Amino acid sequence: MIFYKTLTDWYLQNKRDLPWRHTTNPYEIWLSEIMLQQTRVAQGMPYFFAFTTAFPTVFDLAAASEEQVLKLWQGLGYYSRARNLHKTAQYIATELSGVFPENYNELLKLKGVGTYTAAAIASFAYNEAVPVVDGNVFRVLARYFDVETDIAQAAAKNEFSALAFELMPKDNPAIFNQAIMEFGALQCVPKSPDCGGCVFNDSCMALQKNKVDQLPVKSKKLKVRNRYFNYLVFEDANSNALVQKRTDKGIWHNLYEFPVLETDKEEGFDCVNEYVQEVYGKEESKPIIYEYNTKSVLHKLSHQHLYIRFWKVQVEETLENAIDIETLRSFPFPIVIHNFIEKELF
């Protein structure tokens, strides 16, 4: 009870003014929670406003094309979230007549909705007493109660959920969930938290035992894969370019890109030129290539580091299916390609 009261008092004085905290509309709460998965609030906020403006209801989102959704999502990353968002909107609009499931167990059945998101919607929209456990909650509880359970283990979620449920007031779970997540986001931060100015500095076990920087325990370092992309930016007789959709499963599924040569290591002019001449060269005309960036652009994903170079490929003829540069702007691209288009082609 003391933990809850201290926590909520802190929250009411320090909480950020976020738009999804002013509503119990499950559609807007669902949008915000999907967007904030693996995304900082400051980065996600403009996208929330963009989506609620373009698609004010779940019916509007369901009626949009996937390309419209991906274009609006451009730059937010983890694009499977956008595709699942769109499919779930269509399911809710057509199969559930636009009415969101009203409890945790039913919400879990929605595509793209896991235990955390289902708990957040159930708690914030319907005041259901289910704990919301994210990285912030793991950190706060592990430090305050000196819990050394490895949060990378599957069983950890159940342990921390049970602890959060025990602390949660069953008549007002929403404010508890908001408060503990906000406390982790603003006060009990991962590195160098201000423990001296913390409202729990007289009762936090990690602080008393000088273990704040050791908790929560998390093993299994993610192995990062390096990939090397050489994008071929064609310019034909009409100054048009070629683009293609990434249909393979994996990164950037259903987004657009220029024709790409992926190599095992960083390659220079000779390798790329040889490939271009072999694949696109003709007896009567040879493509001329130039490098846009002599040094690779490093684009970091959670599990991959992409080393990207862009190459201008000039051809004398008119290319079939090539499109003008202005039209490119309407296509959903990975943000690294979008930035290149805006910087180099306009």
Automatic annotation (TrEMBL):
HhH-GPD domain ranges (all copies): 35-186
Alphabetically ordered keywords of this record: 4Fe-4S, DNA damage, DNA repair, Glycosidase, Hydrolase, Iron, Iron-sulfur, Metal-binding
EC top class, as a word: hydrolase
Keyword Metal-binding: yes
Superkingdom per UniProt: Bacteria
InterPro entries: A/G_AdeGlyc_MutY (IPR005760), DNA_glycosylase (IPR011257), HhH-GPD_domain (IPR003265), HhH_base_excis_C (IPR023170), HhH_motif (IPR000445), MIG/MutY (IPR044298), MutY_C (IPR029119), NUDIX_hydrolase-like_dom_sf (IPR015797)
SMART domains assigned: ENDO3c
Catalysed reactions listed for this entry: Hydrolyzes free adenine bases from 7,8-dihydro-8-oxoguanine:adenine mismatched double-stranded DNA, leaving an apurinic site
E.C. designation(s): 3.2.2.31
Cofactor binding note from Swiss-Prot or TrEMBL: Binds 1 [4Fe-4S] cluster.
Presence of keyword DNA repair: yes
Names of the cofactor(s): [4Fe-4S] cluster
A Pfam family this chain is assigned to: HhH-GPD
Record-stated family: Belongs to the Nth/MutY family.
Stated role: Adenine glycosylase active on G-A mispairs. MutY also corrects error-prone DNA synthesis past GO lesions which are due to the oxidatively damaged form of guanine: 7,8-dihydro-8-oxoguanine (8-oxo-dGTP).
Name of the molecule in the record: Adenine DNA glycosylase
The organism of origin for this protein: Flavobacterium tiangeerense
